[in-house]
Write a structure and sequence with these properties.
4-stranded parallel sheet, 2 domains
């Protein structure tokens, strides 16, 4: 019988509903219990509780705990790992764990739920089933599985390409426009821009000393009209700044919101400023050109979440050249 390790971190998928309040104070994985009752597929699921948090309370230390737990465990009897997680920060943890665990040698799948598992409308059991289907099919890699509201099938995303769910429908999406696959009747139907046979050969495992230590910070900034750059303080632990451009890869270069002012602060602090994200081989607006000419570093074809987590790893792994590290593809995070 195949064995899968299910690691619980909290979130709605690991919660219960009591008098209108969702609580993560439980040591049982109700979604797994319901899955076992509904499906007899010859899979043995072993559950362990790593932490019980609502994912909006996620911090860097929790990524350290998750990676430390997995990388120090004896995984010889398991054919894969499922990590249950809250949906709010699922895309960030997916990117971070995609980088850290892509060379594990067995598939890792993160999943979540829109409603507590006991509610009949919840996607929790479908998402567990989808995660199991991925592990049955794939030999390695890190993935995110989620059935969006209003859809019949679970979508499977490459962990470094999944983007945060929207605030109206709660739907996740893939940065390259199409999920890696869909789960239909317990099987994977591939649909994305990366063929399944290319996943194993594309993996370049990230090597780091254990346990993972994320003491240094990255400051991520999202712009808006009227922003005053003078209000932004770059702390002593900030070793890089990530500025999220507008959709056309443009950023303010004039007035009190000018990123040129931010670049001056970065130079004073000895930190680099990265811009995310730019298309390859495309004309740029003069504002973007001005920023790059003055030292800003453009990142190409990458999600905000992957850019942030990859840069966070870069400033904590003592890499000799951060720019080169950011240009190197680790787990399919860069869209070709």
């Amino acid at each position: 019988m195949k064995k899968i390790l299910v690691l619980m971190t909290g979130g709605t998928i690991g919660s219960s509903l009591n008098i209108g309040v969702i609580s993560v104070k439980t040591d049982s994985c109700r979604a797994v219990e319901l899955y076992r009752a509904r499906y007899d597929d010859g899979i043995e699921l072993h559950t362990q509780v790593i932490m019980n948090i609502l994912s909006e309370n996620l911090d860097k230390c929790h990524w350290q705990d998750i990676t430390g737990h997995i990388l120090s465990a004896d995984l010889s009897e398991y054919c894969g790992i499922i990590i249950t997680h809250g949906s709010d920060t699922l895309s960030y943890s997916s990117a971070m764990l995609g980088f850290c665990l892509c060379g594990l040698g067995i598939p890792v799948v993160l999943t979540a739920a829109d409603l507590v598992p006991d509610l009949p409308e919840s996607n929790a059991v479908d998402d567990i089933r989808g995660a199991v289907a991925v592990i049955k099919c794939m030999n390695c890699g890190v993935y995110t599985v989620y059935r969006n509201p209003g859809e019949n099938d679970c979508a499977v995303y490459l962990a470094t390409r999944v983007s945060e769910a929207d605030r109206v429908r709660g739907c996740f999406s893939s940065f390259d426009g199409m999920p890696f696959a869909y789960v239909r009747d317990g099987r994977l139907e591939f649909s994305g821009s990366v063929a399944p046979e290319n996943v194993p050969v594309s993996i370049r495992p990230l090597k780091f000393a254990q346990p993972l230590s994320l003491n240094n910070d990255v400051l991520m900034i999202r712009p808006y009209p009227g922003m005053n750059i003078s209000d932004i303080h770059i702390g002593e632990r900030v070793k890089a700044v990530l500025y999220i451009t507008y959709h056309s890869s443009s950023a303010c270069a004039d007035g009190r919101g000018s990123v040129l002012r931010l670049l001056s602060q970065c130079r004073e602090k000895g930190t680099e400023l990265f811009l995310a994200s730019f298309p390859r081989n495309s004309a740029m607006y003069e504002t973007s050109c001005a920023l790059i000419e003055n030292g800003a570093v453009p990142l190409t074809h990458i999600t905000d979440e992957a850019a942030y987590t990859k840069l966070l790893l870069a400033v904590n792994l003592d890499v000799p050249d951060i720019r080169r590290f950011m240009d190197k593809d680790i787990f399919l995070e860069t869209i070709c």
